[in-house]
Design brief:
It contains two helices and 34 strands. The radius of gyration is 28 Å and the shape is elongated. About 15% of the residues lie in helices and about 35% in strands. It is mainly beta and about 350 residues long.
């Protein structure tokens, strides 16, 4: 048998191997060396030309569609326009601070189908228009009443839509809607340490949202000329905080909030559309003729009253979004059936 330094060579090789392993472990402990995933805690940029930096980011690009391929610890900064970021059901995870997705001076961006958790702001929008945020779950975000979806108060933001999102168990305001002609619809905003929606803008629509069990206010309305309809605002500390004016409220449910309103001041708004007002769980009037409208107004304060308070809660049936290709297929199917029936009828003549 071949030997080296008095030991068989085979035994000597094993001894050297284990010595190297022991030395490596010792060095790692001494210098606190950690091996981490290259993607962990990193920032992904979608650049102006649509390329990714770093190119190894877990986003699959197909033309203008960027699809998340796995759970990702880090954040996304968008520097381009006219794209869709599809989370594909995966999670964008933060470390408790910072912004999950940052949109600055962007146009026509859609963020959808993503779980976003562990950030101060889940989504931050500045000087950007035609932004759509839909069908996402935003949870465990915020801090010091930080907005979860934050549309910065700039006059240059407009036509942004936030729809069908679940915003729950955060520490902050669910949605801050600041731009012109915005839309918040079909969102579930519940169990947050903070308020539901803060409406700062003008000519916006707040429609079909369920805002419940938040520790502060269901809706903070500081804007003007907005339409708020078919929302359920229930079991919050305050139902409404209002200082804006000329907003139209109708067909909303205000149910079992600890206190209905706060901070009115000289705010004057409209509380019915001329035929229907809102449902107020503490309304004591009666509906004598059975038409669903209370016979006496609901008094909010000296400047505000609902002239047509509802006798029963509004039942809102959510209308699911239908993609354009599904609509085309439906129309095609209807046309095919119609033509087939016509041909059969003609052949029987």
């Amino acid at each position: 048998m071949v030997t080296c330094w008095g030991l068989p060579l085979k035994n000597k090789l094993f001894s050297g191997f284990f010595l190297v392993i022991i030395l490596m472990v010792t060095l790692c402990l001494a210098f606190n060396i950690q091996y981490v995933n290259a993607q962990e805690g990193s920032t992904v940029y979608i650049l102006g030309d649509g390329t990714l930096n770093p190119p190894t980011a877990p986003l699959l690009r197909e033309d203008d569609l960027y699809t998340l391929t796995e759970d990702f610890v880090g954040n996304i900064i968008v520097w381009t326009d006219n794209i869709v970021i599809d989370g594909n059901g995966f999670t964008l995870q933060g470390s408790g601070l910072g912004t999950g997705i940052d949109l600055t001076e962007a146009t026509n961006i859609t963020i959808q189908n993503m779980v976003i958790k562990g950030f101060s702001n889940a989504i931050y929008i500045r000087k950007s228009s035609f932004i759509t945020v839909r069908n996402n779950t935003l949870t465990e975000n915020g801090g010091l009443n930080t907005p979860i979806i934050n549309e910065a108060p700039t006059a240059t933001s407009s036509n942004n839509t936030f729809s069908q999102n679940i915003i729950t168990d955060n520490n902050g305001i669910g949605i801050v809607l600041s731009g012109n002609y915005g839309n918040a619809s079909g969102n579930l905003i519940t169990r947050n340490i903070g308020s539901g929606i803060r409406l700062n803008g003008v000519n916006a629509t707040v429609f079909g949202n369920t805002i419940t069990n938040n520790t502060e206010t269901g809706l903070l309305s500081y804007g003007s000329d907005n339409v708020i309809t078919e929302n359920t605002i229930a079991n919050n500390t305050y139902g409404l905080v209002l200082s804006g004016y000329n907003n139209l409220f109708y067909l909303n449910n205000f149910v079992d909030n600890t206190q209905l309103v706060s901070g009115f001041g000289s705010s004057i708004n409209r509380w019915d559309n001329g035929t229907h007002g809102n449902y107020w769980s503490d309304y004591t009037g009666i509906d004598v003729d059975g038409d669903g409208i209370g016979e006496t107004p609901y008094i909010i304060d000296s400047n505000n009253q609902d002239n047509y308070p509802l006798a029963e809660e509004v039942v809102v049936i959510a209308i699911p979004e239908v993609s354009s290709w599904m609509l085309v297929l439906t129309v095609f199917a209807v046309l095919t059936v119609t033509i087939t029936l016509y041909n059969r009828k003609s052949s029987n003549k």
